[in-house]
Amino acid sequence: MTTPADPDPQPAGPPTRRRPGGRTARVRAQVLDAVRAELGEHGYDGLTVESVAARAGVHRATVYRRWGDVGGLLADVLDAAGDDDWRPPDTASLEDDLTALNQEIQDAMSARPSVMAALIAASFRSEKAAEAQQRLWEDRYTRCEIVVARAVARGELPPRTDARRLLIAATAPLYHQLVLLRTPPDPHLPRSAARTAALAGAAGAFTEPPPSGP
Amino acid sequence: MTTPADPDPQPAGPPTRRRPGGRTARVRAQVLDAVRAELGEHGYDGLTVESVAARAGVHRATVYRRWGDVGGLLADVLDAAGDDDWRPPDTASLEDDLTALNQEIQDAMSARPSVMAALIAASFRSEKAAEAQQRLWEDRYTRCEIVVARAVARGELPPRTDARRLLIAATAPLYHQLVLLRTPPDPHLPRSAARTAALAGAAGAFTEPPPSGP
């Protein structure tokens, strides 16, 4: 659900009469494309302002001035990834919505190269990237809350179900296995984790307030 | 549950008649203590063979010869952490066992400095550390399978419950929030995540074979 997308298509309009922001937006798109490509091919260690500038066909002074350093480039890629119109799946079933969401995560993490996996790894190297990664996840989980609200409205979940806790429970096993345990993608896991969260949610595991004792 | 422990107490016996392995074991303990201390204080970027050797009071040639590089040092700290007699909690209740397990994880991750958090971060920097981290997790999850077996024996879970899937579901939200989302520790989360996994397990979410379709 956090697949980076290009937020900067070239502005429409006749090339002889660009809007003032056109060149700036075009340079940003070229540079962020180059960051994603370099990151996917070489990982964080191969990522330099120089290699990004060369690949983007942009003067490196421009990159330094606008992005500062590699951390600034990574943060902008992550911020750009959140600047899209992504919406969570709507299949009319909580388990199926969560399964489709998990499948998106697993597909993005399993791509070769996976820009998403490289960005998560980079967030352990750069504080700016870590903060941008947090902003992106916060935005994605907020957008997904509608999945829970729809399930409550359909009667699949009790009222006052805590959407965020349910969404974390549904998606955390994917991230844990793929990012931390580094196990190969399990084709059953997207549905299994979704079903677990849906079952627990239906049984009241995420109704507020959170449990405080035995 | 992966709190690094010192596996190398100084061998007992009169100091004038050490066993042949005594000095080797003592040097290892000193060096690994130094790695943990440097890692906790300065993180991966401040960790060098030189700083570890100086802190341990060991010649740096000894460290290079035995551990090779920083990755080798980190891998040995992780391998040493698994070389203990840790056992999972046994409270006679699945939810309480999993809650106590999660509390151990949260406490280790929230310590300041947290060697565990620093080791996880380092696993994104060093392939050797990543492999050792995987071995440690694999060992810890295997040791925890008894928690599920006992719950099945008590009738809290259906027979043929997949222990690993249940344990991942119970612990993944902790790791996801603390390591990836980098949210402050939530005092309710250890029990909340445990209860979710226990509820889903009782409802049959982890009985084999895994679900394969809607």
From TrEMBL, chains A, B:
PROSITE patterns: HTH_TETR_2
Superkingdom assignment: Bacteria
Record keywords: DNA-binding, Transcription, Transcription regulation
Pfam family, one: TetR_C_11
A GO term for molecular function: DNA-binding transcription factor activity
Region (Disordered): 1-24
Domain HTH tetR-type as annotated: residue spans: 25-85
DNA-binding region positions on the chain: 48-67
Listed Pro residues bias regions: 1-14
Protein name from the UniProt record: AcrR family transcriptional regulator
